[in-house]
Design a protein that fits this description.
Layout: H1 12-27, H2 34-41, H3 45-51, H4 55-77, H5 84-101, H6 103-110, H7 119-137, H8 152-169, H9 180-209
Length: 214
């Protein structure tokens, strides 16, 4: 498993989606237009119209790009040969590396989608959020804790996202992988307790230190 690379932007559709994410990150949703997206992507208006019915559809598709990549990461890393917690820690490392390698997609995933955006964008984000919450809740299966508050996963995910969002807003994308131990601790402590979450965070720190550089 090597550090994530930039998501592909070869086809006209991929270039249009990356352009949408980049413009959205730099100018906000109101800064999106067919003309601006086409100019940045190097495609014609006719090509855009053959791919998307409107700007909102392009924005929704742009949000789906990193979400699909996250789903693939989780599917690849969860294994019966590892505990749920270990698999989750490895997934967090890979997700943060993915976001570091794709700043525009990181911004729209963690920052822009919280701002003014059409309902379709919020719907896609909510779907991704439910997926991550469900993934966290699987930690209850191996947990020795007796209390299982229903909002634990939602609260843990929100806290981890806040840490990530702080670095993205500051433009420190290269720092995202270094957040993995903190995010692992924040996300797992409600399920595993402080001692086991701290152990997992230390193991994650070792994992990130030994990762090959992109």
């Amino acid at each position: 498993m090597s550090p994530a690379a930039a998501l592909p932007a070869v086809s006209e559709r991929e270039r249009a989606l990356l352009a949408t994410a980049e413009l959205w990150a730099s100018a906000g949703y109101d800064g999106l237009s067919v003309e601006a997206i086409c100019s940045r992507a190097g495609i014609s208006a006719d090509a855009f119209e053959s791919l998307f019915p409107n700007v909102e559809a392009a924005a929704v598709a742009a949000i789906e790009v990193p979400l699909a990549a996250v789903v693939r990461i989780v599917a690849d890393l969860f294994s019966p040969d590892r505990s749920e917690a270990e698999s989750y820690a490895m997934a967090i490392v890979s997700i943060l590396e993915l976001m570091a390698a794709n700043p525009a997609y990181a911004y729209v995933s963690y920052v822009a989608r919280r701002q003014v955006a059409p309902s379709g964008v919020h719907s896609v984000y909510a779907s991704g959020h439910r997926f991550l919450v469900a993934m966290l809740e699987r930690l209850w299966e191996g947990s020795g804790l007796k209390d299982q508050p229903g909002c634990a996963a939602l609260a843990a995910l929100g806290a981890a996202e806040a840490v990530i969002r702080r670095e993205i807003v500051a433009g420190r994308y290269e720092r995202l992988p270094a957040l993995a131990p903190d995010c692992v601790y924040i996300a797992t402590v409600p399920f595993l307790g402080q001692k086991e979450a701290a152990r997992l965070a230390r193991a994650t720190e070792s994992l990130t230190e030994n990762r090959p550089q992109a």
